[in-house]
Batch of 2 targets.
Target 1
Amino acid sequence: MSSSSPSISFIIPARNEEASIKETIESIRLNCSLSHEIIVVDHNSTDNTFLVAKEANVKVMKKIGGTIGSVRNKGATIATGSVLIFLDADVSLTTSWQDNISEALLAIKHDPLLLTGSHCSAPDDDGWLSKLWFSRFSQSESTVHIGSGHLIMSRELFDRLEGFSEAIATGEDYDICSRAKALGSQIVNAKSLKVVHRDYPKSLFGLIKREAWHGLGDAWPPKKILQSKVAIAAIIFIALHFLLLLIVTTNIVPLFFIALPIGLITTLILLSSFVKFKHNGYKLVLFNTLIFYFYYLGRSASFIMRAIK
């Protein structure tokens, strides 16, 4: 690496990740030959995450309380790199990442407002849900946002954005990408920078739980809801189910009107699948239409979780 190349700070939030954090650190050391530092921010762990990270000879700090955005910001306070790479504690770098990171860093050097990274792939030996949903989603052409599981930006851009929002429980990645766009940033999903998320849900119930959590950041206040196409779609999804229930349980309209909400729900999930997976062919679009139903069940649960808080 030349002296003019950017230095890199990996910032890894971790909560009860003693079984995973060592593998993530090892993947960085194996696949990043450029000058770098690794910072692990232990967030209220009740296991040995802090000790395992410490034994791996990386920078470790503790963060008590706060949102995930505040945890990422905490790591950035001691980062010395001119490029910040936010990585989740169960994500591994790959040889493809190693082969293509220099090009990405050069792009950031020429355009400090560039925000890049990639959507996480699932392990090759993972289950059917990961193969047909998560790994295919990682190949999406969408540049609406890059997930904070693998998000790369210059220190300059991070500082100009004043870091991640610390006011929202989840969705801090979508929020920072939106603010970066408003600042004039280009959002680039660098699919060649392949990373592997080792802990995707293996079941539809796991998907529902995951999306219920991820949807919390969009479920309130109303301004956030109106800014999120997914949140608006989830509200439509909920409303159509209420309409379906109303038709089934009352005599307000003839029962054959049940076809209306069912048809609209089917249209919503089919269109959603088409938008996300059209580049993978119609068979996958049709299959993932069914999975989108459970995806929206999870996003709908976000509103319930918000309401009972």
Target 2
Amino acid sequence: MNLEAFILGCGGMMPLPYRHLTSVLLRREGDLFLFDGGEGTQVSLRKLNLKWKKINAIFVSHTHADHVTGIPGLLMLSAQVDRDEPLYIYGPPKIAEYIETSRKVLDMYINYEIVVREIREPGIVYQGEGFHVRAFPLQHTKTCVGYTLEEDPRPGAFNPERARELRVPCGPLWSRLQAGETVRSDNGEDVAPEQVLGPTRKGRKFSFVTDTRYFPEIAREVADSDFLVCEGMFETALADQAAEKRHMTAVQAATVARDAHAKKMALIHYSPRYTDNELKVLLGEARAVFPDTVLSRDRMVFPMEYAD
């Protein structure tokens, strides 16, 4: 089952000619989930030829303009196609007011159901088949949350030789065993899944953290992420400015990734003070702490593979 993250925008504060504002689309087979929707989101969706009309849910970190100004256009665009399923929007308090006010002021024509759910406390906010999305608190100048999408544990690896020894013929019965069912062997004995399956295997985990000051508990929330998208807005020389604005430096983002034992981290939400060429300063500082760091760029794609 494919799981991949598309960076639709990697900038913070203001859009630049070469850098849209923060937005990440996660695709898990037929499900699409949008994390923040900054200005320029539609442009990257179009350039990547992604089926934006199939977006299941939008997860908003907070209601600062550089994270939500791309959403009204998406809502209006979605009304131009047939949509049978509701669009869910999650975010901290004020997100419902923002969506409703935008609809009224812009006199939106909406021909599908929009369900807005405000997050009042940390925990699971969205449950899908074989996975869930969890929200956790961050510390910014206004209420802000991070998100993880985590898959359920997978069955252990199937041992075909053991199945043959137990007289279970190859075919549908093997599939049923792998699905967790007990089956009947050729000699009439029950064979349970645990007799032919190895230890349970971990599912994949994606984490999204932006607009927060550094604090150690973030690492616990995103622990063991296969892919962490994390703000690294400033270099260490501007740490005081980062703290004042309640943002993180690249080194602080790398510290989160290191302490969380993440597999890979992509920095995002760069200050507009940095040109694309100057971002190498952030990358160098982050890699000194967490070597598996990359710079996210608009329209980059990051697939997430199973550990085994």
